[in-house]
């Protein structure tokens, strides 16, 4: 064969290989877990027959089912296990499921048997489920008949938290990050319930100085207070774990997201919807005040919704953080951008010389944003500095935004955004205000809260201390020019964000149309 023929042959061979490769793509399965076989039985002999038991099974599909039924993913046959074991195995003994659309969710095992499925020696119980974690041992028919050891190939951050936490909770994805730390989605391993865990690094807030976070006795006192709070519109605290460097607060999880997100998605809320949601906020803050707690950081990011529906339960969160970190640290970390802060808080300069009336002002800003979808105070309004706007009560009033808002709503807003504390409207007066007097809304809210109070079981708060070292190291408005304003870092406890970085919070800052007569209006109320 001459050189030309040889070159043609090589070219044809290469072309043939290219065509084969293109027509037969290589499939690489996504293995999310593995079941390694064990050998211990009641008699101490091998569970699996020597020649037939599998060394391991790869978990690829979202479901793995074991039992005697031939339709199971892994049908157990007589030649595979000892006779005294197989006679007690159900046709459908257990099933392991994992949501592959959300890879950081855990694998969950459900017991389908009459004779029992066990995880780490504990019986699950027919029809019950529990979360599988890396290294968990699975037994069938008896706690000693261990058949598999589960290997989690999507293992997340279990080894980055103290053992007291990882033994009880499966750590999933990050829900948000903010000034006070990180929020993780966690699962109770035995109950398979979702929670939010706020992780507060002490060094981040104390700068090495003596602080409430460094004092176990003060932490215990604040936990006792948080334990006692029981209201349908207040986020419940499940557990608190205190370690040398970090405080872990396990909280109730809300599925509907933040009020902030609902406002930004819609541009603004109707007066009817605002009335329904706002009444719950006022009732929640009134309850906190009755317990001697001033929130001091009320804003739409700290108002969470139970569902995506309009008529949903509202819950206030982050009401205890100032208690944990102390006044000075709280003001420096939480209130860096004082968009929702009352004038007296700015005057205080980190010293607590103001009362619960500050929460009424913050409610007024939230009320303002709900109705018109833009911030009343902002650095973008150049006539006055942000501090001067708040101290003088000069909010930005855009007629094009407020033209369809009722007079009573405007009056209520002014009463809340009143600089003089002794003239500012009270919470009881808000509830009795003419704008709030909608019998249908009142009945619907009261009925919803009553139903929640009846079915809600408040689990007893437990406190654990650990010395383990941690590795956890636009919507456009017609004819209005809109500027996006970065507000605060995302600190949601809601199950709506998969970002592990702080997400800038943005709200519209309204500017007038050409020829529109607007100004910074005074909120000081006069009878």
Automatic annotation (TrEMBL):
Record PROSITE patterns? FHA_DOMAIN (PS50006), PROTEIN_KINASE_DOM (PS50011), PROTEIN_KINASE_ST (PS00108)
Where is the region Disordered? 1-20
Domain named FHA: residues: 64-124
Q: Name one Pfam family in it.
A: FHA
Which Gene3D superfamilies does this entry report, sorted A to Z?
A: 2.60.200.20, Phosphorylase Kinase, domain 1 (3.30.200.20), Transferase(Phosphotransferase) domain 1 (1.10.510.10)
Q: Where is the Protein kinase domain?
A: 169-436
Name recorded for this polypeptide = Ovarian-specific serine/threonine-protein kinase Lok
């Amino acid at each position: 064969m001459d050189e030309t023929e040889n070159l043609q042959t090589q070219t044809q061979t290469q072309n043939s290989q290219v065509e084969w490769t293109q027509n037969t793509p290589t499939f690489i399965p996504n293995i999310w877990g593995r079941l390694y076989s064990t050998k211990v039985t009641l008699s101490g002999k091998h569970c699996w027959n020597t020649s037939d038991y599998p060394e391991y099974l790869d978990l690829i599909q979202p479901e793995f089912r074991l039992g005697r039924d031939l339709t199971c993913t892994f049908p157990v046959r007589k030649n595979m296990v000892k006779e005294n074991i197989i006679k007690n195995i159900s046709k459908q003994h257990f099933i392991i499921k994992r949501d592959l659309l959300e890879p950081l969710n855990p694998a969950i095992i459900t017991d389908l048997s009459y004779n029992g499925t066990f995880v780490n020696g504990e019986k699950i119980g027919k029809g019950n489920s529990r979360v599988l974690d890396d290294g968990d041992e699975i037994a069938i028919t008896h706690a000693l008949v261990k058949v598999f050891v589960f290997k989690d190939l999507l293992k997340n951050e279990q080894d980055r938290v103290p053992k007291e936490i990882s033994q009880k909770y499966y750590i999933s994805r990050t829900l948000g990050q903010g000034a006070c730390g990180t929020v993780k989605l966690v699962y109770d391993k035995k109950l398979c319930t979702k929670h939010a865990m706020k992780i507060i690094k002490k060094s981040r807030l104390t700068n090495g100085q003596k602080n409430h976070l460094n004092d176990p006795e003060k932490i215990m006192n604040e936990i006792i207070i948080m334990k006692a709070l029981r209201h349908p519109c207040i986020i419940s605290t499940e557990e608190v774990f205190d370690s040398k460097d970090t405080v872990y607060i396990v909280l109730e999880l809300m599925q509907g997201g933040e009020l902030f997100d609902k406002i930004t998605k819609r541009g603004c809320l109707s007066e009817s919807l605002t009335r329904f949601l706002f009444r719950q906020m006022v009732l929640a803050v009134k309850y906190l005040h009755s317990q001697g707690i001033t929130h001091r950081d009320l804003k739409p990011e700290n108002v969470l919704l139970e569902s995506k529906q309009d008529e949903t339960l509202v819950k206030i969160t982050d009401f205890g953080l100032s208690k944990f970190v102390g006044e000075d640290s709280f003001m420096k970390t939480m209130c860096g951008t004082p968009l929702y802060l009352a004038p007296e808080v700015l005057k205080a300069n980190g010293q607590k010389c103001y009362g619960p009336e500050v929460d009424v002002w913050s409610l007024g800003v939230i009320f303002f944003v709900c109705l018109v979808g833009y911030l009343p105070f902002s650095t973008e309004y150049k006539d006055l500095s942000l501090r001067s706007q708040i101290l003088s009560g000069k909010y930005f009033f855009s007629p094009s935004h407020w033209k369809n808002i009722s007079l009573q709503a405007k009056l209520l807003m002014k009463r809340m955004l009143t600089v003089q504390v002794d003239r500012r409207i009270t919470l009881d007066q808000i509830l009795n205000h003419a704008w709030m007097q909608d019998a249908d809304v009142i009945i619907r809210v009261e009925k919803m809260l009553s139903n929640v109070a009846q079915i809600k079981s408040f689990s007893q708060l437990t406190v654990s201390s650990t010395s383990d070292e941690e590795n956890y190291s636009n919507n456009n408005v017609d004819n209005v020019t809109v500027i996006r304003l970065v507000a605060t870092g995302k600190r949601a406890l809601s199950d709506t964000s998969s970002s592990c970085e702080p997400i800038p919070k943005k709200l519209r800052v309204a500017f007038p149309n050409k020829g529109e007569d607007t100004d910074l209006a005074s909120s000081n109320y006069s009878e």
